[in-house]
Amino acid sequence: KVVSFTMSEMQKMIGQEVAQNDVVRILKKLGFSLTFNAEKEGANAKVPLFRHDIVNAQDVCEEIVRMVGIDNIASKPLNFSEANRMNDTFVGYKNALNLRKKAAAAGFFESVHYVFDDASELAALGFAPCKAEIANPINSELNTLRPTLANHLLKSAERNVKNQRKSVKIFEFGSVFSQSGEQSERFGFVASGLAKEPSLLNGAKPADIDFLGFATAVRNAIGEFELKACDDVKYLSEFEQAKIYQNGVCVGYIGRVDVRVEAARDLPRTYLCEIEFEKLKFDSAVVKAYSKFPAISRDLSLIVPKTMKFEAIKECINALKIECLKEFAPVDIYSDDKLGDDVSLSVKFNFQDIQKTLEDEEVAAIMDKILDALKQNLNIGLR
């Protein structure tokens, strides 16, 4: 019987370096015959016929240690190091899990569906069929790979409404497939009916879900985002739909389901959102010092055209890069016959400095700067 081993393996098992000449001497005294390869790294030990207990390299190592003496081998602590398992797949899984938990905390219930869908229903929503055809579909209603989560979410909302649910809030995280068959991950949200279920706290008939309430719930799940109006999602209302942007990148869309789709599926007022998971940013939380000095707020009532979007006003003010301007937002819109094609838009500004208490004169100078910029760039001014 011949047992093969290398000197590096033997030294690793022993725990310290033993000279090759000593190994050869010990094994020959024990009746082994040794041959080495050309590099003298690998060795073949012919086991004596009477040594039936020698089966592998570990047994040969035991013989060497026995002759060297266990007390002559220096003890070393066990070095146990776990391999780093943090790869992109694991990070993606953890990010998705955290989003699912946040969606549940925002009041949505998770749903799970097949990756297959009904081709005819998808066509009615404006989706082209996937080129990767299913050879043996489960049934006629699951005969193609789904390009969106929207159809399954709307069907789930429809089933919940028929089961007498007055407020339906559902989300799903799953795979979708492009027209060419490429797979990607999406997050989908749907809210239908009332903003909350009727109760003693909410009254017999709470208010219906609206765009702002739905967008706020989605924001609580995926984080802060910006909205830009659009009209290219065919199954959403052209008057209530927008693209979702995070860090300047379009990550999805949000809007009210078209009234014709709602009527065809017996749905009350319904809002839908779909997010491309790969485009979301999961940056670590950044801690910033907060100001110990009081904030000051000011309101402006601006006369603006009815056709002007607040986005234009926002971009104009942000371009000024006023450090002490913490936030600003529209708070009221007023119109009457005297204003004609214009409306009165009230905007609230909050100012706060990190190093000092702002004086009224400083705030007034900043407000004048904002008004000058709005007048020069957008030709709008005070009411």
Can you tell me about this structure?
The protein is α+β, with helices and mostly antiparallel strands and 383 residues long. It has three domains: 2-72, Phenylalanyl-tRNA Synthetase, Chain B, domain 1; 88-279, BirA Bifunctional Protein, domain 2, CATH 3.30.930.10; 296-382, Alpha-Beta Plaits. The chain contains ten helices and 16 strands. Strands 4-7-8-12-11-10-9 form a seven-stranded mixed beta sheet, with helices on both faces. Strands 14-15-13-16 form a four-stranded antiparallel beta sheet, covered by helices on one side. Strands 1-3-2 form a three-stranded antiparallel beta sheet. Helix 4 (88-105) packs antiparallel against helix 7 (211-222) and helix 9 packs across helix 10 (360-378). The longest helix is centred in the last third of the chain and has 19 residues, at 360-378. The mean pLDDT is 89.
Tags for this model:
383 residues; alpha+beta; Phenylalanyl-tRNA Synthetase, Chain B, domain 1; BirA Bifunctional Protein, domain 2; Alpha-Beta Plaits; four-stranded antiparallel sheet; 16 strands; 30% helix; 27% strand; elongated
Strand order, largest beta sheet:
4-7-8-12-11-10-9
β-strand amount: 25-35%
* Element-level helix/strand string: EHHEEHHEEHEHEEHEEEHEEHEEHE
Characterize the overall form.
elongated
Query: What would the CATH topology of the largest domain be?
Result: BirA Bifunctional Protein, domain 2
Mean pLDDT figure: 89
CATH superfamily of the largest domain: Bira Bifunctional Protein, Domain 2
Cα end-to-end separation: 102 Å
Number of strands: 16
Based on the coordinates given, report the CATH architecture of the largest domain. Answer: 2-Layer Sandwich
Q: Give the biggest sheet.
A: 7 strands, mixed
Q: Level of helix content? A: 25-40%
Runs with pLDDT <50, length 5+? none
